[in-house]
Design brief:
11-stranded mixed β-sheet; 6 helices; 11 strands
């Protein structure tokens, strides 16, 4: 899907806002020092042994106040918000001008307009690990055992590229490769438990972590952690996002038949620094 058409800004109306579609939520082990670079000092990072839980949220909304659009949320880590914690969004990519504007003005998200290019390819099926095998036994995934050498599975390659604008010095781009659930299996086997909550309702299953790659220049910078302190804010933002996306994946969940009912955001801090826009939980 290319950049969505802009609707009237009143399309969102009053909350709650309803979003329907599917999503992938992947958790990564992110270095605490990487996460702190984009989290205001007034917030305490949830960490252990020098790491926090970050990752990303990749969603395709089939129905929303902004119509059909895709979203990639880069999550730097967890911050304390007593009595619980919240995931901190360091960057949000959407292919809808209206969703981008709403995210920035109404929710305080670091939203950016991007293009989402999708391509499905067939690759040899990989051996499932012990965790996936166990989850299959309880019906939370369709991948089992060791497949024969002739078995193949469909994978979707998603390229997310930030749309350049006069205020953007360098565009950000990520490539994500995720395994698709075969249609025959999804129709013939249990799709996992249906979980109904006030936010959201969905079917959930564990899946193999998505492979993430990006442009070599910023990838090298993020891996070596040698970015100069004089680097521009935009490039530093890209470097932090790259470091999060390229960190070690540990778990991934696929949400289908998802319905999210989103209430108005609650302001938890008015960040004093202009480099740290308002965030909400």
């Amino acid at each position: 899907m290319e950049i969505g058409k802009t609707r009237n800004s009143s399309g969102y109306g009053k909350p709650p806002w309803i979003f329907k579609g599917s999503a992938l939520y992947q958790l990564h082990l992110v270095k605490a020092e990487t996460a702190r670079a984009c989290i205001p000092k007034e917030f305490k990072l949830v960490e252990a042994f020098g790491y926090t839980l970050g990752g990303f949220f990749l969603a395709n909304y089939e129905d929303s106040p902004a119509g059909v659009f895709d979203e990639l949320v880069v999550l730097a880590g967890l911050v304390w918000n007593p009595p619980t914690s919240c995931a901190w969004a360091t960057k949000v990519f959407v292919n809808s001008n209206e969703a981008c504007e709403h995210g920035r003005k109404e929710v305080g998200l670091p939203s950016h307009v991007a293009s989402f290019s999708k391509r499905i390819t067939a690759i040899p099926k990989q051996k499932s690990n012990k965790t996936i095998g166990f989850l299959n036994m309880i019906g939370m995934t369709t991948t089992t055992g060791t497949a024969s050498s002739n078995s193949i599975e469909d994978c979707m390659d998603v390229q997310v590229t930030e749309v350049k604008s006069p205020c953007v010095e360098d565009s950000c781009s990520f490539n994500l490769t995720t395994t698709l659930v075969p249609a025959a299996l999804s129709l013939g086997k249990w799709m996992g438990p249906t979980i109904k909550m006030s936010l959201p309702s969905f079917r959930v299953r564990a899946v193999h972590p998505t492979k993430v790659s990006r442009n070599s220049e910023l990838e090298q910078c993020s891996e070596q952690d040698k970015c100069s302190s004089s680097i521009s804010t935009t490039t530093m933002d890209h470097s932090t996002s790259a470091a999060v996306m390229l960190s070690k994946p540990i778990f991934a969940l696929k949400f289908s038949c998802m319905t999210m009912e989103v209430e108005a955001p609650v302001v938890i801090s008015n960040c004093s620094s202009s480099n740290n826009p308002l965030r909400t939980c």
